[in-house]
Amino acid sequence: MQGRHPGSEMQVRHKRSLFSSKNQSKMKTFLLFLLLCHVSSAVKHTLRYFLTGSSGVSAFPDFLCVLEVNNIQAAYCDADIFGPKQDWGQTVAEHDPDQVHVYRNECYNKKPFLFKEMISTLKQRFNQTEGVHILQLMSGCELDDTTGQVSGFLQYGYDGEDFIVLDLNTLTWIAPTPKAVITKQRWDTERLRIEYNKRLYTEICPQWLKKFLHYGEKTLLRTDPPSVSLLQKTPSSAVSCHATGFYPDRALMFWSKDGEEIHEGVEHGEMLPNHDGTFQMSVDLTVSSVPEEDWRKYHCVFQFDGAEDRIITELDGAAIRTNSIPPSEFPAGGFIGVVVGLLLLLLCMAALLLWKKNKNGFRAASTSESS
């Protein structure tokens, strides 16, 4: 796979495949400050490693690794590419070359060999001589910047299904599938390896995460509020409350009535990334059974996780953007005006054709000829 430059598309596909795991002037949008403070930064921060090994897949690396901080791709490596994906990642590399050395050694020496051996073992165990097979690892840590609490995680997936998970509380392996029982029994005896993983993901990983947050503060700790719109395809379809351009992605949206969250007639859309690194999401409300005079009782609420501030948008028919134009929006005599306009257009076209004919040598008859 020479000359490829994996981007967000590969990253998204890589993540989704891991473990069988939607008139601004007229809109009455306002900020409700429950506390007199600005929107706070995200309460929890994460450092995640996504490692993938493959067998029988053409035009795809045998091994690749993606490093993410707060769901932003910070670094990538495979057999051809190694390096940061963000400017602040380059800063980390310049200030901590030892860490870069660790990542390089893991990417080119330890992990590719480990994944190759594991895939070979699993193929033999399950009598898989041919076909495509994928081994994946997701590991990392989470840090609560309010309480200081740290949690680590490490889990493997094989051919799109959960395979084995390390419980860092009991320091034992969990087998979600009977296929992994043999692996669990064997790995539970490797106490030194388990203790190393505990230290790696509950002590060392949080230190690296703090370092990333320090150097990438302007990007990772920023808060971008969304632009909120009310959208509707037709007058009878659901009203979609759409928020876009916000960061971070730890946010929620819901519909409320008289200040209470409602669930009936509400459909939540998937959160999606924008090309500029921000995010978008939507939540739909079925209004076909709601009298329009009661619409003002409904509000769309957007809130960042861990923040006290909310962006509340009132369900106002005048603020809804729609693809259809109701007859009431035509001015008085609008239909007659359209007909008159079409007639004038036809007359102008006829006059233009006559002018072109005269210009090309067709002349009107003389007086004597017309007699």
From TrEMBL:
Keyword Protease: no
GO BP annotations, alphabetical order: immune response
This protein's UniProt keywords: Glycoprotein, Membrane, Transmembrane, Transmembrane helix
Keyword set includes Transmembrane helix: yes
Domain Ig-like: 226-313
Chain ranges passing through the membrane: 332-355
GO cellular component, one term: external side of plasma membrane
Family assignment from sequence similarity: Belongs to the MHC class I family.
UniProt cross-references to PANTHER family, sorted A to Z: MHC CLASS I ANTIGEN TRANSCRIPT VARIANT 1-RELATED (PTHR16675:SF237), MHC CLASS I-RELATED (PTHR16675)
Protein name, per record: Major histocompatibility complex class I-related gene protein-like isoform X2
Organism: Parambassis ranga
GN (gene name): LOC114426111
